[in-house]
C-alpha cells in the first residue's frame, strides 16, 4: 500500500475543501489558535511514518486525554470501575447534565465529561501524585519527557468550568464522587490542558493498535483484553453524540477533543492522528473527520 501517495491525495483534497466549522471558544485560550492549521500523522506497525502539514506541532489534546486516563484507571482497577461509570453511548452533548439526573449520577461512559470526571476521581484516590503520575504515564507511552501542559489553557478553562463543576456537584450528591470537588476539577482540567503533536499522539495511540504493547520496546502497558475494551468504548462513545456518524463514515475506533484533534487506530495496522481546530456543531474537527474518511476509503480498509 502506498500510504504516502494516499496522504498526498488527502492533502490535495483538503486544500480544495472549505470548512464551515468554528474554533472552540468556550475556553477562551483555545480561540487564539490559527484556524487553518492542519496536521496528519499515520504511524504504521509494519512500515513506519507518513505525514503532512503541521504534524509535529503541539496542540491542546483536551478530551483525547480521556483515553489515557481510562487506560491508567483500568490498569489499576478491575471490573469494579464499571460500577461507577457505564459503557453505553450517550447520544447527548459531551457536557450534558440531563441524563445524569435520570441515571442517578452514574455517567453513560468514560468519554463524556461526567464519566471522565469520575475517572479523575478514581485516579486521585488511587495515585500518590495524580498530576505527576498522569504525565509520567504519557511520557512512558511516548518515550518523550518534554510533553507538558499549557498553563494558559489550564487557567483559562478553570475560570469557565461552571458546567464541569455542576456535573461534579450532581454526582457528589448521588455519592459517585469520593474526593473534594475542587481537587477533581483541577486534576481533570490539568489532563485536558496537555499539549501533544499528531506525531506524539500517534505514538501514544499505538498501544491501542498493538494489543496494549508499546511498539518501541514491546512493554505491555495494558492487557490485550482491556485494550480491546477501550477500543470498543472508543468505537461507540469516542465522538460525543456523533459516534454513530464517525463509525458510519470512517469505521475506526478513535477519540476527538475540542482542540481539534482526532486520534484513531486500525487494530493490528496503524494509529493515525489528524488536527484542524475548526469544529463541526457536534464538537468534532470537521476536516479531521473528512481526512480520516478519505483514509479508510482510499486504502479500502476499515475495521468493518
Ligand atoms: N476540557 C474540555 C471540557 O471539559 C474537554 C472537552 C472536549 O474536548 O470534549 O469542556
Structural class: alpha+beta
Helix segment count?
13
Strand content: 5-15%
**Strand tally, please?**
9
Biggest beta sheet summary: 5 strands, antiparallel
SSE string: HEEEEHHHHHHHHEHHHEEEEH
Taking pLDDT < 50 over at least 5 consecutive residues as the criterion, the unreliable ranges are none
Return the average pLDDT rounded to an integer. Answer: 96
Q: Nearest-angstrom radius of gyration?
A: 18 Å
**Cofactors and ligands:** glutamic acid
Name the quaternary structure. Answer: single chain
Terminal-residue CA separation: 18 Å
Major beta sheet, strand line-up: 3-2-8-7-6
Choose one word for the global shape: globular
The helix content is 40-55%
Could you characterize the architecture of this molecule?
By secondary structure, the chain is of the alpha+beta class. The chain has helices at 3-15, 65-76, 81-84, 98-102, 113-126, 130-142, 151-159, 162-173, 181-192, 198-209, 224-237, 243-249, 286-299; strands spanning 22-23, 39-44, 48-53, 59-60, 195-196, 254-256, 261-266, 270-275, 278-279. Helix 1 (3-15) packs antiparallel against helix 13 (286-299) and helix 8 crosses helix 9. The longest helix has 14 residues, at 113-126. The chain starts with a helix and ends in a 5-residue tail after the last helix. Glutamic acid is lined by residues 62-63, 94-95, 113, 157, 164, 192, 257-258, 283.
Amino acid at each position: 500500500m502506498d500510504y504516502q501517495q494516499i496522504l498526498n491525495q488527502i492533502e490535495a483534497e483538503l486544500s480544495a475543501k472549505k470548512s464551515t466549522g468554528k474554533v472552540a471558544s468556550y475556553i477562551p485560550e483555545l480561540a487564539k489558535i490559527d484556524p487553518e492549521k492542519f496536521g496528519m500523522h499515520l504511524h504504521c506497525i509494519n512500515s513506519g511514518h507518513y505525514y503532512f502539514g503541521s504534524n509535529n506541532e503541539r496542540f491542546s489534546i483536551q478530551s483525547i486525554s480521556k483515553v489515557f486516563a481510562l487506560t491508567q484507571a483500568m490498569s489499576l482497577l478491575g471490573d469494579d470501575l464499571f460500577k461507577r461509570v457505564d459503557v453505553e453511548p450517550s447520544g447527548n452533548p459531551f457536557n450534558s447534565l440531563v441524563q445524569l439526573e435520570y441515571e442517578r449520577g452514574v455517567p453513560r461512559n468514560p468519554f463524556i465529561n461526567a464519566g471522565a470526571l469520575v475517572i479523575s476521581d478514581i485516579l486521585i484516590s488511587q495515585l500518590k501524585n495524580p498530576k505527576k503520575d498522569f504525565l509520567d504515564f504519557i511520557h512512558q507511552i511516548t518515550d518523550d519527557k518534554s510533553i507538558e501542559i499549557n498553563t494558559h489553557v489550564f487557567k483559562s478553562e478553570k475560570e469557565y468550568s461552571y458546567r464541569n463543576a455542576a456535573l461534579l456537584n450532581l454526582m457528589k450528591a448521588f455519592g459517585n464522587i469520593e474526593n473534594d470537588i475542587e481537587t477533581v476539577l483541577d486534576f481533570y482540567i490539568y489532563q485536558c490542558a496537555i499539549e501533544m503533536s499528531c506525531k506524539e499522539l500517534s505514538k501514544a495511540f499505538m498501544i491501542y493498535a498493538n494489543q496494549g504493547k508499546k511498539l518501541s520496546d514491546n512493554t505491555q502497558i495494558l492487557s490485550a483484553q482491556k485494550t480491546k475494551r477501550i477500543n470498543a468504548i472508543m468505537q461507540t462513545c469516542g465522538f460525543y453524540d456523533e459516534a454513530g456518524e464517525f463509525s458510519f463514515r470512517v469505521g475506526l475506533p478513535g477519540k476527538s477533543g475540542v482542540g481539534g484533534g482526532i486520534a484513531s487506530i486500525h487494530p493490528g495496522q496503524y494509529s493515525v492522528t489528524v488536527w484542524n481546530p475548526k469544529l463541526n456543531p457536534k464538537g468534532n474537527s470537521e476536516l479531521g473527520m473528512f481526512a480520516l474518511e478519505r483514509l479508510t476509503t482510499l486504502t479500502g480498509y476499515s475495521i468493518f
